[in-house]
Amino acid sequence: MSRNALKRMISDYILIQAEIALSFGIVGSIFAKDVSISFSYFLLPAIIGLLCIIPCIITYVKEDLTVKQIMIQRIVEWIVLEVAFIWIVYKMVGDVPGKLGYVAIFFSILFFDIATYAISYFLEKREADDINKKLAQIRADEEEDDYVQ
């Protein structure tokens, strides 16, 4: 596994944990205020993040992914995240959130998933644009040096 693939995998793992923590906190504070939970539940984002990353390891190992492959990987991660999170919430608190609460969980995870990937995309695009500008400047300087000689 290359360094870039490991970097992408760790970045996605951290993003997934952030999504889960935000969804858990927001939806839990609205729909399950009176439920007491164990401190061991603080480990859930790490466990769910791992569950979401495992099915996609193959796509992390491959360096030159097509847009279609990236979309498939992101969709698989999202589906696994939704299923795992809703299942765990159901096992933890049962029907306390109610149908509306579970719909809110679904949409909060979808929202945070889209938001984190959008932010990640714009940050990576900015970094790529900066690199391209530097490369263009280097090429221009080399051409100028060749012209002078």
Summarize this structure as a short list of keywords or feature phrases.
149 residues; mainly alpha
Explain what the structure shows.
The model has no long low-confidence stretch (mean pLDDT 79). Helix content is 82%, strand content 0%. Helix 1 (3-31) crosses helix 2 and helix 4 packs antiparallel against helix 5 (98-148). The chain is mainly alpha-helical. The protein contains five helices and no strands. It has helices at 3-31, 44-53, 57-61, 67-93, 98-148.
Topology summary:
Blueprint: H1 3-31, H2 44-53, H3 57-61, H4 67-93, H5 98-148
Helix pairs in contact: 1-2, 1-5, 2-4, 4-5
What does this entry show, briefly?
Helix content is 82%, strand content 0%. The chain has helices at 3-31, 44-53, 57-61, 67-93, 98-148.
> Strand count, sense and closure of the main sheet?
none
Identify low-pLDDT runs.
Answer: none
Estimated helix fraction: over 70%
Structural class: mainly alpha
Number of contiguous helices? 5
> Tell me, what's the shape?
elongated
**Proportion in β-strands:** under 5%
Order of helices and strands: HHHHH
Mean pLDDT: 79
Gap from first CA to last CA: 44 Å
Radius of gyration based on Cα positions = 21 Å
Please report the total strand number as a whole number: 0
